Amino acid sequence: MRPHTNLRARSAFAGLGAIATITTLAVSPAAGQTEYRSAAPNLTATPQGQAQAPKARTAATLRVRSARTNVLLGRRASVSGTLRPARAGRVVRLQRKGAKGWQTIANTKTNVSGRFSVGVTPRSTGSAAVRVLFAGDGGARPARDGLGRLNVYRRAFASWYGPGLYGNPLGCGGRLSPGTLGVAHKTLPCGTRVTLRNRGRVVRVRVIDRGPYVGGREFDLTAATKQALGFGSTGYVQTTR
Description:
about 240 residues; mainly beta; Immunoglobulin-like; Barwin-like endoglucanases; 3 domains; three-stranded antiparallel sheet; 1 helix; 16 strands; elongated
């Protein structure tokens, strides 16, 4: 008889995908004893070829708390607010709508409380729709909030007209009445939109007539426009054109 004989038996359950325990039968002729030893294999398996599911992004809320969007040329327009959920370093963009769509004109980052403040000093007069935008990131979805219009003004000397002229034809078509909103201008094309501001009041009207023909005056306001602005007889108004 050989000094030492090892007998190993392995079993597997075909079709069930189970892994069996390996049993070792050891026979020792010297001692005349038989020992059984079992070893359980590691059953932990790591799936392969499976992509980890993307982490769901939370809804974001962007809120404007204060906005300075009526400014004279050379002055700073600014917006402040909050972005939730709060996290430092998230980018908030101030955007203006132009002929080619929304364009970013300034941007900033939130602080740890989600607060932000962003501003810009416009280089020309004009009026355009503006908004603030958070484009989203790995943790939160995009959000935005509208601001109405950003109006950048210059000062212009103006007068008004109406009584005694009601019923007369207008230079751009139609007839003047006490309720007609609009302005007269010597060169701006008929139909041009003009935003005017006086003592905190703002109106947006069209060029509907020609004039004024008194030296030094750029605009003639109709009676209805004068009333909406709280304007006197002559003086300066703020205009985006």
